[in-house]
Amino acid sequence: MSGAGLKINNPGREAQNHFMDRQMLPPELPNSHISLRVLPPPKGVMGQFYIHQLNLSRAKLKASSRTSALLSGFAMVAMVEINMDDGIDDRLITAFSLCTTLLVAVHLLALMISTCVLPHVEAVASTINFDGVNGQLQSQALRSPHETMHRYIETAWVFSTVLGIILFLIEIGLLCWIQFHKSWNSRFFSTLLLVPIVLIFIFFTFQFYRNLVKHTYKGFKEDLEDIERRLDVFHEQTSCIQTV
Questions:
Q1: Global pTM value
Q2: Domain with residues 47-133+147-235, CATH architecture
Q3: b/e for 73-109, b at 16 or more Cβ within 10 A?
Q4: Contact call for residues 125 and 142 (beta carbons, < 8 A)
Q5: Which residue has the higher pLDDT, 151 or 142?
Q6: Where is the chain membrane-spanning (predicted)?
């Protein structure tokens, strides 16, 4: 009898719960049942962000190593192959030697940082596995040094792509003044072309980083707003469950 009673009561209870769910659920949600899948897995969001930062750090290190190796090699060749005549001003030679030394030192520092950090980041990135369904990140991804060495990576990036390129442009100007010291027109017009190029490069650098910061801020703001909307839906669902 007790088993028969349970069989009679359960359908009525289920129908009542189903009716309450249909009446109290928000209209934009499915009426069949309440699902907690509307909330993004916290591990999934953090895992995707972690992978993005890992790939970005790896790309920066690769770009820094290639750029620094190329420009420092050009500077060394220019210093060795340049012909010094007797009529060259000693101040030009001093400025050229200082600029070349600083240029090579900056690029070699960026190259050293990239060479030391990049293999460890590559080793982790090649074996990383992110489960997008469950939102879980494998533990070996957390062993990457790209977060603890973030300052070194940014230093290598700035030295290689900003400071190093500006020094390289100055190096070109000094080379023109030394190589064409007998021709005033050559020195004048080369400097006249080089100055606006340097100014445009500096302006582009500031504008690029400014727009990049705005884009990053906008992306984080949209993600936070999306999480807040999902949390509001979750709170509405939990209140419906408690009411039932």
A1: 0.66
A2: Up-down Bundle (1.20)
A3: ebbeebbeeeeeeeebeeeeeebbeebbebbbebbbb
A4: no
A5: 151
A6: 63-80, 92-113, 156-180, 186-209
